């Protein structure tokens, strides 16, 4: 494993404060700190713990511009710690940064403040829609103009160069922030580097001279196709683009009194758990659930989530004065190449056809049958545009069904005397005819009232050359660990049996502020005599990379 040229800020462990870093100089990179050097190092005291910035701001509504979340009133966000201020200073110097840290250490808060304070065109992006929402930004694929990135790298460069709007975004940006870097493959990062060099007409500098701030934790979820495409730190452009690497170490998401829980999460992150931490995990697995609470179930697979969700749906009372359950069957067309066009932003809904993303399957996004009832909790499977101003509800957002509505036949029925035909494509009209134009009204869980509700329209998914039309949603009482990344949950039931990917256990266990908010279902996994837990173990390449740059 080669030594990586990341500048690493690794502070004290657990609930300790401070951050420190290494910088690349003309002589190369300094060696990792020795124990004596660390003992002599004076850390900067941090401010009182606060919840994640996105969660604290409480804003589920998406913004119009990539920086607008950062333009929210400063009073709505917790103040930066001294360590975060130091990192912000490095960004202000124009350095390429890699920002990492355990879950809940305030990475998102720092990104928001960077967009607020730094001069120039700061672009906030994330790999998933849910993470982009927390930043008030856009998905990386959307901003970069690469669609689902299903082409070769060379083809993507030509594709973006033909898109005047995408080229303009690349040329005007001064700082590109990419959150969830652990889920970005080496292939994709190198492709973006090539696009930046071409779009900005500056082939000699990484990303065409565009400063980058790469943020994320490689101990969390990996890229979908890491075996074939590698981790981001394996990208050819990494060493040239990243001048400074910083690790935040104080967990701010947790209650300040949760020192023991913070230490458990730190050990789970590294894959080895001592007797004290294991005893706390055993308590979480053996204590009875609080029947007064409705925690989110975090499970390994979609099939497990489906079973839990169906049971929860059947427990909902029927509305005696309202509409019965609605079951939406997907509509399949052989090769519908004409996706829906919007008749006003109120009817737009991410219907654009696109190839599946690299290393992922689109089949999980369009269930064959989706049964809904008033009160049902759902999770969006595509970013949708709603409202007259085209507000974005991102992929991964949890909402509640607050009612059903029957849209006018003129929008979808060719037999209607006033049929327009411009609101939906042929396949979407067939779907609406099949369901008599009845669609659900949804509102985000944080504001699940009729005043904040929007109609959820069908979307078109592409599966093996076939157009599949379905509502872009799944039931959401239970979510997979992949969908949980980046979220702050009030309470959670974590299922550790059946985990199949590195980082899943750590992501699932670190969503809540207190140990009392977490229950472990199905018992604990096997633990070796030396404390190692195979299901907790990080990827070997991640462990080597983290060690090579002096991470805590």
From TrEMBL:
<keyword id="KW-0547">Nucleotide-binding</keyword>
<dbReference type="GO" id="GO:0006281">
    <property type="term" value="P:DNA repair"/>
</dbReference>
<dbReference type="Pfam" id="PF05970">
    <property type="entry name" value="PIF1"/>
</dbReference>
<dbReference type="GO" id="GO:0000723">
    <property type="term" value="P:telomere maintenance"/>
</dbReference>
<keyword id="KW-0067">ATP-binding</keyword>
<keyword id="KW-0234">DNA repair</keyword>
<keyword id="KW-0378">Hydrolase</keyword>
<dbReference type="GO" id="GO:0006310">
    <property type="term" value="P:DNA recombination"/>
</dbReference>
<dbReference type="GO" id="GO:0043139">
    <property type="term" value="F:5'-3' DNA helicase activity"/>
</dbReference>
<dbReference type="InterPro" id="IPR010285">
    <property type="entry name" value="DNA_helicase_pif1-like_DEAD"/>
</dbReference>
<comment type="similarity">
    <text>Belongs to the helicase family.</text>
</comment>
<dbReference type="InterPro" id="IPR027417">
    <property type="entry name" value="P-loop_NTPase"/>
</dbReference>
<keyword id="KW-0347">Helicase</keyword>
<keyword id="KW-0227">DNA damage</keyword>
<feature type="domain" description="DNA helicase Pif1-like DEAD-box helicase">
    <location>
        <begin position="91"/>
        <end position="276"/>
    </location>
</feature>
<protein>
    <recommendedName>
        <fullName>ATP-dependent DNA helicase</fullName>
        <ecNumber>5.6.2.3</ecNumber>
    </recommendedName>
</protein>
<dbReference type="GO" id="GO:0005524">
    <property type="term" value="F:ATP binding"/>
</dbReference>
<dbReference type="InterPro" id="IPR051055">
    <property type="entry name" value="PIF1_helicase"/>
</dbReference>
<dbReference type="GO" id="GO:0016787">
    <property type="term" value="F:hydrolase activity"/>
</dbReference>
<keyword id="KW-0233">DNA recombination</keyword>
């Amino acid at each position: 494993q080669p030594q990586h040229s990341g500048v690493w800020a690794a502070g004290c462990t657990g609930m300790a404060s401070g951050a420190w870093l290494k910088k690349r100089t003309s002589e190369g990179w300094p060696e990792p700190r020795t124990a004596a050097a660390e003992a002599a190092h004076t850390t900067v005291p941090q401010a009182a713990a606060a919840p994640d910035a996105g969660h604290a701001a409480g804003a589920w509504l998406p913004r119009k511009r990539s920086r607008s979340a950062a333009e929210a009133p400063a009073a709505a966000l917790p103040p930066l710690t001294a360590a975060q201020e130091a990192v912000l200073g490095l960004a202000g110097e124009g350095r390429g940064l890699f920002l990492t840290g355990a879950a809940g250490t305030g990475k998102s808060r720092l990104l928001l403040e960077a967009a607020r304070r730094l001069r120039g065109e700061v672009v906030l992006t994330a790999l998933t829609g849910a993470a982009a929402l927390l930043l008030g930004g856009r998905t990386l694929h959307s901003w970069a103009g690469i669609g689902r990135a299903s082409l070769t790298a060379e083809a993507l460069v030509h594709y973006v160069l033909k898109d005047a709007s995408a080229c303009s975004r690349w040329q005007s940006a001064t700082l590109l922030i990419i959150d969830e870097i652990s889920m970005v493959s080496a292939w994709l990062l190198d492709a973006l580097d090539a696009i930046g060099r071409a779009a900005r007409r500056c082939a000699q500098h990484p990303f065409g001279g565009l400063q980058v701030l790469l943020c994320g934790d490689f101990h969390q979820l990996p890229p979908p196709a890491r075996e074939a495409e590698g981790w981001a730190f394996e990208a050819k452009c990494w060493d040239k683009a990243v001048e400074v690497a910083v690790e935040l170490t104080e967990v701010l998401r947790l209650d300040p009194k949760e020192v023991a829980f913070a230490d458990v999460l730190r050990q789970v992150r590294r894959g080895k758990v001592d007797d004290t931490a294991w005893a706390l995990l055993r308590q979480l697995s053996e204590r009875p659930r609080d029947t007064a609470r409705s925690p989110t179930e975090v499970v390994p697979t979609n099939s497990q989530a489906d079973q839990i969700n169906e049971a929860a749906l059947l427990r909902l009372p029927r509305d005696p004065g309202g509409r019965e359950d609605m079951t939406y069957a997907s509509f399949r067309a052989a090769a519908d190449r004409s996706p829906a066009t919007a008749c006003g932003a109120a009817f737009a809904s991410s219907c654009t056809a696109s190839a599946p993303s690299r290393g992922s399957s689109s089949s999980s996004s369009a269930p064959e049958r989706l049964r809904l009832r008033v009160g049902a909790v759902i999770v969006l499977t595509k970013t949708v545009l709603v409202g007259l101003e085209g507000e974005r509800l991102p992929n991964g957002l949890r909402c509640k069904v607050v009612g059903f509505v029957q849209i006018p036949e003129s929008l979808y029925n060719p037999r209607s005397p006033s049929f327009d035909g411009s609101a939906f494509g042929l396949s979407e009209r067939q779907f609406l005819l099949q369901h008599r134009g009845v669609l659900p009204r949804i509102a985000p869980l944080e504001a699940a009232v009729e005043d904040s509700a929007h109609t959820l329209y069908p979307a078109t998914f592409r599966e093996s050359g076939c157009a599949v039309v379905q509502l872009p949603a799944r039931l959401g009482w239970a979510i997979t660990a992949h969908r949980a990344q980046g979220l702050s949950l009030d309470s959670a039931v974590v299922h550790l049996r059946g985990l199949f990917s590195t980082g899943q256990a750590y992501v699932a266990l670190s969503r809540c502020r207190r140990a009392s908010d977490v229950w472990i279902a199905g018992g604990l996994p096997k633990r070796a005599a030396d404390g190692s837990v195979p299901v907790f173990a990080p990827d070997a390449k991640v462990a080597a990379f983290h060690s090579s740059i002096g991470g805590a």
